[in-house]
Amino acid sequence: MAKRLSAEERRATIITVAKRLFAHTGFHGVSIDDIVSEVGVSPAILYRHFESKEELYQAVLQEFSATRESYIEAVVADDIGFEQVLRGMTTVFVSSIINHPDMLKMEMHSQLDDSSASQDFFLNRWKSFTDYIEFSLNELQALGKIKPINAQAAALMYQGMIREVLILKCMQQSDRLKDTPIALLVDEIITLFMKIVEPVR
Amino acid sequence: MSFDAELDAKGLNCPLPILRAKKAIGALTSGQVLKIVATDPGSVKDFEAFCKQTGNELLSSAEAGGAFEFMIKKS
Fold first, then answer.
1. Domain residues for B30?
2. Per the structure, how many domains does chain A have?
3. In this structure, what CATH number is given to the domain that contains residue B32?
């Protein structure tokens, strides 16, 4: 006979199943009935842990925040420049998506959902990059180290490129890119990106 | 608690508060204290990790009114 789960284990199981379903069909594509039938419990048990589907969705996002990327190692080394930090951060971010592709799927769905909470959640994850790029490029320009550049547009460009690679490689397993490892692709994209950041000689 | 320099990192996401702090600490002499105010909730763990890795001392870490305040003593 299956072991009875503790309340904590039950809650964790519900979150795990919900995460997979939300990633697959988005917030609106999943009903409480879908979740309980997959978990194998009654709706009453689910409602004991989560008041609503919204609350369950938030719990899934919470779990993602708990596994949030740490960029510390990428930035503490001495005499490290803009490009090295960007490469380090990107490596950390890309590996986390490779390990949690459901996060990317939920992000894509959140673009269509009318929930500002989930949109903000995912936007905030990219904000590490956009903040870093905007702030650093503006600072480097102010110091006269690089030629004038629109830092905001550059940050957006970077986010768009990296997100597209992740979509193609982690979600769609695109044929077009199947022979190119993701790390190499990301590396080349950063190299291309750095060409728009022109040092003043 | 007294401090020798202050860094406003409000509204910035990791790793920027860390990078700014690293730079600000670089300008201090050993034993001086930097106060940092940040709003990114992740900054709590980040500054703990930062101090562990760099050997600087995290004197305090507190939350007040949606902001996080850190005091770091340069090693």
1. 5-73
2. 2
3. 3.30.110.40
Contact B47, B21 (CB under 8 A): yes
- Judgement on whether residues A95 and A154 belong to the same structural domain of the protein: yes
Number of domains in chain B: 1
Q: Which helix (H) or strand (E) holds A124?
A: helix A116-142
Instruction: Check if the beta carbon of residue B3 is closer than 8 Å to that of residue B33.
Output: yes
Residue A174 has pLDDT above 80, yes or no: no
Tell me the average pLDDT of chain A: 89
Q: Helix or strand or coil: residue B34?
A: strand
- Of A93, A88, A66, give the one whose Cα is nearest residue A75: A88
Mutate to test the interface with A, among B19, B43, B72 (most CBs of A within 10 A): B19
Backbone dihedral region for residue A69 (phi beyond 0: left; psi -120 to 50: alpha; all else: beta): beta
- Residue-wise pLDDT for B10-58, tens only, equals 999 888 999 999 999 999 999 999 999 999 888 998 999 999 999 999 9
* Token pair listed for A152: 């905001």
Per-residue pLDDT tens for A19-52? 999 988 888 889 999 999 999 999 999 999 999 9
Residue A200 lies in a domain: no
Q: Is the complex ipTM higher than 0.85?
A: no
**CB nearest A76 (choices: B42, B45, B53):** B53
What range defines the domain where residue A174 resides?
70-194
Nearest to A128 among B14, B45, B49 (CB): B14
